[in-house]
Amino acid sequence: MADKKNLLLLFDRPTEPVFMEKGRAAVFDVPDKFLTDRYRPIGNEVQSRFGEKAEQRIPVRDISIPDLRLPMSLPRDAQFSLFIPAHRRIAGRLIDIFMGVRSVDDLQSVAVYARDRVNPYLFNYALSVALLHRPDTKGLDLPSFAQNFPDKFVDSQVFRK
């Protein structure tokens, strides 16, 4: 059974691929079919390269993935806002998907698959809502949005210094 705290690692470095190191030397062992088209041909090399120094390997179960066409319709580089009705519908669908899976293991698998495919702001919002409302993920201390997307709160010139 998956540790529900591993789900928090999915918030770490939201624009990097999910197979890269997260947190303090943790790596998700992603099934090849979960990799995006860009990384699928070189999946073994990429995953072994980024997992060399991992202290914790988190297995991801290979399950059938729900239909993510609607959540994937928002481009990854687009801005996300709940004030836009279409974005609200998309977010609602992704939340329903996350809420509808049976176990923490299945939630982890679906979230790992979705993370590299849907808009990062949408993903963060939907997973946060699901983790707060699912009975089996209660009590998790979710990271602040400002931690994951500091560029939304701090002028980019500060990062250069």
Automatic annotation (TrEMBL):
<dbReference type="InterPro" id="IPR005204">
    <property type="entry name" value="Hemocyanin_N"/>
</dbReference>
<protein>
    <submittedName>
        <fullName>Phenoloxidase subunit A3</fullName>
    </submittedName>
</protein>
<keyword id="KW-0186">Copper</keyword>
<dbReference type="Pfam" id="PF03722">
    <property type="entry name" value="Hemocyanin_N"/>
</dbReference>
<keyword id="KW-0479">Metal-binding</keyword>
<comment type="similarity">
    <text>Belongs to the tyrosinase family.</text>
</comment>
<dbReference type="InterPro" id="IPR013788">
    <property type="entry name" value="Hemocyanin/hexamerin"/>
</dbReference>
<dbReference type="InterPro" id="IPR036697">
    <property type="entry name" value="Hemocyanin_N_sf"/>
</dbReference>
<dbReference type="GO" id="GO:0046872">
    <property type="term" value="F:metal ion binding"/>
</dbReference>
<keyword id="KW-0560">Oxidoreductase</keyword>
<dbReference type="GO" id="GO:0016491">
    <property type="term" value="F:oxidoreductase activity"/>
</dbReference>
<keyword id="KW-0470">Melanin biosynthesis</keyword>
<dbReference type="GO" id="GO:0042438">
    <property type="term" value="P:melanin biosynthetic process"/>
</dbReference>
<feature type="domain" description="Hemocyanin N-terminal">
    <location>
        <begin position="26"/>
        <end position="139"/>
    </location>
</feature>
